[in-house]
Write a structure and sequence with these properties.
2 copies of one chain form a homodimer. Chain A is α/β, with parallel strands linked by helices and 393 residues long. Chain A has 15 helices and 14 strands. An 8-stranded parallel sheet of chain A has the order 10-9-8-7-6-5-4-11. In chain A, strands 3-2-1-12 form a 4-stranded antiparallel sheet. In chain A, strand 7, helix 10 and strand 8 form a beta-alpha-beta unit. In chain A, helix 11 runs parallel beside helix 12. Chains A and B meet through helix 1, helix 3, helix 11 and strand 13 of A and helix 1, helix 3, helix 11 and strand 13 of B. Strand 13 of chain A pairs antiparallel with strand 13 of chain B, so a sheet runs across the interface.
Amino acid sequence: MRIDSVDIFYLALPEILDIGDGSQDMALVRVRAGGATGWGECEASPLPTIAALVTPASHSACRPVGESVIGQRLDSPQDIARIARAVGERSLDLLQAAHTWSGIEIALWDLLGRVHEVPVHQLLGQRTPAPKTPYASQLFGDDPQQTLDKARASAAAGYRAVKMGWGPYGRGSVAVDADHVHAAREGIGPDGILLVDAGTVWGDDVDAAAARLPALQEAGALWLEEPFVSGALSSYAALARLSGAVGLAAGEGAHEASMAHHLVDHGGVRFVQIDTGRIGGIGPAAEVARYAQSSGVQYVNHTFTSHLALSASLQPYAGSTSDSICEYPVELSSLARGLVRQPIERDGDGLVRAPEAPGLGVELDLDAVRGYLQDVEITVGGRTLYRTPDLVP
Amino acid sequence: MRIDSVDIFYLALPEILDIGDGSQDMALVRVRAGGATGWGECEASPLPTIAALVTPASHSACRPVGESVIGQRLDSPQDIARIARAVGERSLDLLQAAHTWSGIEIALWDLLGRVHEVPVHQLLGQRTPAPKTPYASQLFGDDPQQTLDKARASAAAGYRAVKMGWGPYGRGSVAVDADHVHAAREGIGPDGILLVDAGTVWGDDVDAAAARLPALQEAGALWLEEPFVSGALSSYAALARLSGAVGLAAGEGAHEASMAHHLVDHGGVRFVQIDTGRIGGIGPAAEVARYAQSSGVQYVNHTFTSHLALSASLQPYAGSTSDSICEYPVELSSLARGLVRQPIERDGDGLVRAPEAPGLGVELDLDAVRGYLQDVEITVGGRTLYRTPDLVP
């Protein structure tokens, strides 16, 4: 079959708060081919993402993403890889292209799985989805008491693993940060898995991060996530030499597989976290999963938005029994919650698996989110390059 | 003073050819503060670049670039660094932001230099611009005879250094590529400096690149540029071990300073090439220049567009006597040529220096390029976020 159309829909809550909640808006991708439809989500700023889809060309290596996708043959995973190479070459100098392509790539896998009536992880050669321990992913409280309450609530809701991140952490004193970490440990209990996310707050400042290690070590945190921006490899390596039992985790910012490889090769991370909505989709994420496994590093999904994105993020390592942790967002906005009819629930043992239905295995409730649709119109030189099409037929 | 406005203008030739000529369109930045005006250029796809300036926010780390710039204080280089940090944090997850910010940062330096009546390199602590040997930067011919003719023409025009790149190179046989390289050497003569640019054509394939080394070594090429995509550090390192007298050059794709550091630290490059219009402007480029000097690696500007961009690209290493080569585009489009009233010419010895007039030291001829202006209008949810303002008052 041939790819007939690629549309990106911009959905957003009526008010976007200045907080670290990435589920307040959405770049939702719809791809149509051979009478079938696939869906994906870019973890990206929607407007520049749409612009990268439709922009006029600048030169031979700076061309719109849509041009490399629409009209292409799509019958097998090899076709997705071929289109990925074309986008990589033809949009090399268009920085936003990686984010735009990520959601399209995911939608192509979804579509292919639906047409062949198999889940995406089977197309990747993974037979049976392995159980993952989901961690409740949420923002730190405004003060340690609130952090304690949030951690307790997660434990009471049956989560054996909890991640607290962003919010005030790293922005105040070392002592207050320690109070937050100890409060989180107290809240989840002595046996829970505690994960801490610094949200790149220290830039590349090893000393600032190292000052937080004692509290993390005392509280038995499994990992410290993103102490630094993705590119600060030498800072990662320096902190890894000091961090003892606390492993470093990073990779969510990777917009190509090689960036994740660098964290493994030169950053000393013990956990590599990949967002399929940024790295170029499911194919490159699966490549990173294989690379991590061969390097003794654990692969973990990164996802902070809808269960469509959650399913996409689980596919690359769905069958792996050695990579047993998964991020599981619990503070979703009404937009991200509303998008999917039946969310990916924990089973009786509190574990999560990639869906076994065809494609990404989630059905969308477009009527539930149509109220969040932002009509976009982009005109260049009097020519309309994009006008939001109908979301619900 | 406070920054009053930031505008990005999209200019383009009537027809964009599917060739590697990056001067066919332009994202031109105008910043106004305290009654003065500064200009810069993003080396970027203009439409997504504008979208990243004005897009609504997604969350606390995915916000429009303009928000972190407009209204800010601008009195010294420290203010530019402060705004850069804000953009880095507040637009962390907006991939295109680095390209958008690059042109703005350049315009801020231009404005600051004009207000203080000093050239930008003096603001960077570099007193006297050192002479650079410009290399005529151009595309390979369609066949070896055409390459020979182009190289001869450059030598006849007085260039002691010539770079041939892109076009057919790396896309056909090893033998034809060798013919092109030998033709280029024949054209420039035995004493000329020969540089070859593969334009990332081999992805990360070390064998494909290594097969071209014998011809490059026989022809005495000083460097082989971008055999691989920027992120393929281990491929760079592997090829560097094989390349003998031919140094590897790379870095133009770097959209943050750390990516250039990685090429130095882990890629084995001998030349690091920085485009100020992509890496976040003149400040991060100057940081890379210092890092390269301390690591025994030569810094080289990358620029393929107007002489406004050329001036910006010379500033970070204007005063360095050890980094003595500069890229000098000779096949500019009428748009890129027309933008600047007095281009940066070679002196009687065929050498080039950063301009000594205030700011970037180039005056624009807006009337000459106004015919290339592409009116852009972006509307989201019924609200017009961008409409191209007047370029010429």
